[in-house]
Structure formats: C-alpha cells, structure tokens
Known about the structure:
- With about 70 residues, the protein is mainly alpha-helical.
- It is about 55% helix and about 10% strand.
Amino acid sequence: MGVSAPLIIELLKKNKEILLHFNIWGRWDNLQHDLEKSLKNKVKQEIGKTITSPLAPITKPLEKLIKKLK
C-alpha cells in the first residue's frame, strides 16, 4: 500500500483494538480471503474520517439549519 505499518496500525486502532470484517471461503486446505480488500477499505474509511473531522464544527450548524428549514 506504500504506507508504513505503524502508521496504519495507529490510524486503525480504537480502544487498543483493530476490528476488520473480512470473508474466508474455500476448502480447508485452500482457504481464500478478502482481508487485503477489507484492510484497504478500512484505511480509506478512517482517512476520510480524519480529513473531514476538522470540518465538523462548520457543518454541524449547517445541518441543523437545513433541518429547521425543511
């Protein structure tokens, strides 16, 4: 992914845990999984939260105003 593992771990760690939901399928001697895809999606999701969180103080009042206007 081109990013250091410690950075990814710190980004994903919540309450000293990293929760990843991924699927495992196949035969016992040939298991398949989508762990890599799940990890990439989780990292993208957390980066998105990190980038948009500074905008939260600005957007929350706007959301309340829009709800009142409806």
